[in-house]
Amino acid sequence: MKSGDLDKRILESEERFRTLVECAPDAILVESEGNLVYLNPAGAKLLGAASPEQLAGKPLADFVHTDGPAPVKQQMQQGEAADWPTDRFEQKWVRLDRQAIDVEVRAIPINWSGRPAMQLVCKDVTDRKRAEQALLESETRLRSIINCFSDFVYFKDGAGRWLEANDLALQLFQLEGVSYSGKTSAELAGCSGMHEKFLLECDGSDELAWKSGRQVGMERRIVLPDGTLKLFDVSKVPIFHTNGSRNGLVVIGRDITEHKRTERILQDKRERYKSLFEHNPDIVCSFDLEGNFVSVNPAVEHITGYRPQDLLGRTAKIVIVPEDFARAKEHFAKAAQGEPQNFELAIIHKNGNCVDLNITYVPIVVHGDIVGVYAIAKDVTERKRVERALTEAEAMYRSLVEEAMIGVYIYQDGRFVYVNPRMAEIFGYTQEEMLQMDVLDLFAPEDQPLVARNIRRRMSGEVQSLRYQVRAVGKNGTQIDLEVHGALTVYNGRPAITGTYLDISERKQTEELLRESDKLAAVGQLAAGVAHEIRNPLTALKGFLQLLKTKTDANQDYFDIMLSELERINLIVNEFLVLAKPQVIHFEPKDVRLLLQNVIALLDTQAILNNVQIFTQFADDLPLVNCAENQLKQVFINILKNGIEAMPGGGHIEIQVKRRGRDQILIRFADQGCGIPEDRLSKLGEPFYTTKEKGTGLGLMVSHKIIEAHRGKISINSLVGKGTRVDVILPAAVGGSPR
After folding, report:
1. How many whole angstroms separate alpha carbon 311 and alpha carbon 297?
2. What is the spatial distance between Cα 322 and Cα 309, in angstroms, rounded to a whole number?
């Protein structure tokens, strides 16, 4: 062949190749040394350029998305090393307008102008990727929906191959972990273990559904792994293409074991529904995006009283209580945007009763678009009734505990986890403070081992319930007598002790007063006996002394003194009888100052012998006091003698008399004696209790009794080393003139 003809044919061949490349629908790019040296029009369009010249010379790396798989350069290097076209791979590229696109690339090593280069054949697969993603999302939503059902559900294609199954179906047929998609029931039978026979029989019933062209229902017995026999109502619904060819098969199975058992008991042969929609015992319905009922299963009539035809084409507002409608509408709007919802609301039954429902909203997605909302509603009226009853019972119990007059507690892990207000009041703390305290810190140190031992006995289960008395210490340091009761229980899933604290301090004081009363009764009996024994010889002495006085005129003064002293002894014996029984006392208005002056004159000698000075301070406007003169003198003598004897080394006694309000008089005796310890003050006045070495305790007891008979009171305050102050308060005589 001539050289000219050869050149012509080469040029024609190059022209045909260039035309083919320029008109190719796929993008063709040539890269050399990292830069684009050629792009066909489809390549420029792929990258968002108006013409190939706009991109010539630009680095290819500028168009590769950084978040994509392995860079194009790496794939190209592998092709160059093998001197062979690479396999197709996908990359995410970025156009000039910064829009990200998915690209399928194949790299072919070539020579370009005498230099190694790589020809890239690219195809925009963005739409395909989006469609794949939409399909994946649709399948995910479908699985989410079918997993909401309490029935087993699976789908087959027109050739009988499994496409999708819910978790219950996989669990029931022991296909968990098995790659079932694309396999027939016969192929899966070998993977199913004890359900092989069931799966092998499926093809026959599938064919029956295909040939009938409609839903086919049947009952199947299935043995669970634990040997339990379950009866399932299985429905198979064939789906056909528009040309009549087979498209798919929906298989739905519901456990009707309990239902059948009930039917047998009631001998009520009720017709079974043949679709998932009609079988569900809960309300299953669908809505359009406007919220109107599109379909309603028969369960709605049982739960709401309305027939399905009463609701179709209408909104749920017809049944929802007004106060819940806005909330239901809000949940519906979210479901219509693709968010499944679960919530509870109340509806009004056709008979006027209120029914509580648990609602699940699931969006209906067709070809990636939400076209409506499925709703599944379960009647939870009984559960809500029980919950309300429990709430009311708990509120009533809490009210009872909170208002109880005894302390109620729950103990766990060394601390109180609950105390009622009365419990906090007993100790003087707030409820919050008690929850932070160590329990043992509330008790007297000597009783803490007892409390700790009893807690251990109950927590270990040695005893279930225990009651005992113990001494506690309040926040202000006062001692509290408690009766503790506790029993082992469970709180928040762990062992605890619940019980009560009863403040028995007042009861203890009452018991103490009863004991004091018994003492006084004994003292009264003793006093009556002693007085009787003294008065008999005293009468004889007085009689014989009066007889002797008439027999002689000598020493008459001595006789008068002895008779006076015998009269005084008789008076003291009469005072002693005050302890034995109530006596008629003659009250007369008297001036307390004169009584005190007589008593001071009587004891002045004893005071001088003990180096004690007595000072008086009498107010001028003192009213008279209705009193028994000798008894009141006895009280003043007892108080003054105690003061004198409390100062063996000498000192002062101050006596102050003044008004106390409008109708009382205060007589105050203050000495500089050794004082009385605080713990002994409360026992002063008890029979036979004394702070003196040779005392009997009767003097102050008699004084208290006399003042009480005068409707007054005695109070004693003392400081050790400082002295004692005795206040006697007496009511003023009615109409008594102040002096």
Report:
1. 11
2. 22
Q: Which residues pair with 536 in a beta bridge?
A: none
Q: Residue 673: is its pLDDT beyond 60?
A: yes
**How far separated are the first and last CA of the chain, in Å rounded?**
169
Pairing of strands 651-659, 612-618: parallel
At 728 the pLDDT is: 94
The whole-angstrom distance between residue 666's C-alpha and the CA centroid of its chain comes to 59
The answer to whether residues 444 and 396 touch, using CB atoms and an 8 Å cutoff, is: no
- Number of neighbouring beta carbons within 10 Å of residue 464: 11
Among candidate residues 698, 709, 714, the one with its CA nearest the CA of residue 666: 714
Asked whether 613 and 647 are in contact (CB, 8 A), the reply is no
Q: Write down the residue that tokens 């009210």 correspond to.
A: 399
Question: Greatest CA separation found in the chain?
Answer: 202
Distance, CA of 247 to CA of 159 (rounded, Å): 8
Confidence of residue 667 (pLDDT cuts 50, 70, 90): very high
User: How far is it, in rounded angstroms, from Cα 243 to Cα 620?
Assistant: 131
The pLDDT of residue 541: 76
Q: Is 386 helix (H, G, I), strand (E, B) or coil?
A: helix
| Pair of tokens at residue 219 | 């009952």
Q: What is the pLDDT of residues 218-232, one digit of tens each?
A: 888 888 777 888 898
Whether 272 has a pLDDT exceeding 70, the answer reads: no
CA distance 738 to 727: 21
User: Residue 359 in contact with residue 344, Cβ under 8 Å?
Assistant: yes
**Strand, helix or coil for residue 505:** helix
Q: Which domains does the chain have, with CATH numbers?
A: 21-124 (3.30.450.20), 150-266 (3.30.450.20), 404-503 (3.30.450.20), 509-579 (1.10.287.130), 588-731 (3.30.565.10)
CA angle 602, 603, 607 (to 5 degrees): 150
Rounded to whole angstroms, how far apart are CA atoms 702 and 696?
11
Q: State phi, psi for 89 to the nearest 5 degrees.
A: -140, 160
The tens digit of pLDDT for each residue in 169-182 reads 888 888 888 888 88
| Residue 497 clears pLDDT 80, i.e. is over it | yes
Among residues 276, 384, 379, the alpha carbon closest in space to that of 319 is found at 379
Question: Does position 512 have pLDDT exceeding 80, yes or no?
Answer: no
- How many residues belong to the chain? 739
Count CB neighbours of 517 within 10 A: 10
| pLDDT tens sequence across 465-489 | 888 889 999 899 888 888 888 888 8
